[in-house]
Amino acid sequence: MPSSLKRKIIAVAFPCITETELALLDGIREGVPKNCEIIVVSGGYETVLRRLAEMKELTGAIGDFVSDAWVKTLINQGVAVIQLAQCSSLKGVPNIAPDYPAMGSLAAQTLRNNGVRSFAFAGVPGQYASAQLFAGFSEQVAQNSAAATPFSGISLVQMREFLRRLPRPLGLFAATDRLARFAVLAARELGWKIPEELAVIGTGNQRLESLYAGISLSSYELPGRELGRRAVECLIHGGTPSGTAPMARLHERESSLRSPTGLDRTLAFARSNLDRPIQVADLCRVAGMSRRSLETATQNRLGISPAHYVQNLRREQASRLLCTTTMSIQSIAQACGYEEPGVFATAFRRWTGKTPSAFRASSGATAGHCQSPKPN
Description:
CATH topology of the largest domain: Rossmann fold
Radius of gyration: 22 Å
CATH architecture of the largest domain: 3-Layer(aba) Sandwich
CATH superfamily of the largest domain: Response regulator
Helix content: 40-55%
Distance between the termini: 43 Å
Number of domains: 3
Shape: globular
Strand content: 5-15%
Order of helices and strands: EHEHEHEEHEHEHEHEHEHEHHHHHHH
Largest sheet: 6 strands, mixed
Strand order of the largest sheet: 7-6-8-9-10-11
């Protein structure tokens, strides 16, 4: 361990605690050496961190900090700092963040595939993550000679007036689930139908926002646990984050699924619930179709059975996580709907001819260069 990390305390600083921060903390705890103590500070944490640094009790700090100048005061006291780049991206320290532009691009593709006519983006002024999401979103929208209209207001009234000016059906991507909820509530005040006239995707996968919105919000679940693990890896070993930025998971739900067909709802359900042990009976229930009807519809659309569709999704997700993350085999198994790593390993070997560990080793784990293998 480097000399700068001989002290025992690592501080994790959050402006507030949400479900995403709890997942981050889990990932950090998984990666921290046993001889290090984790303390969590929130809100006005600057004074606490500065005092710990001056007392030479602080080994490292992980958080979403305000500026390079402020972080430098910690570094000058021998503290290793990792930035969780959501509010801002800093120049003087490693930045750990999801692939925000890729998230924006996928949101635009998803909304386009659902048949919207125009596009809008609700962002957070001055926030790094919001700007990156908008960049990916607007670039993808522009590929079809369209433009994404930005919204940067803070109130429900402003959202209502913003939506009123836009043609329908409208697809809106929001940098937070709170803004997604505002869009849903404002659309209802205008008498719009959701998702027929307004399809909405949020960010954060905050379940309470869906309850407040009165509709299940399609939303990105940020890869908090993996981000936490990467932050610790950089803190302990130094250097820049290894591999490609982890991709957030898009849950497609009621607020964006404009297609009236049961098959489209079913395919979206499968894509969004790979961590569950999905059975064909579950897919039939979501589709509102008999097993035979679903089998026929899936065969006609995709050329494969519903079970094979889910299997292909699991194989693609497993190979991507093995290539681009440092997640344990057990965690990857659970993310693909397998409670037992041994059962997952057997399935993966059947798909690819290799065990998960061998596949990761041969592909160059976290190098970001591997492709999803074709099934054997």
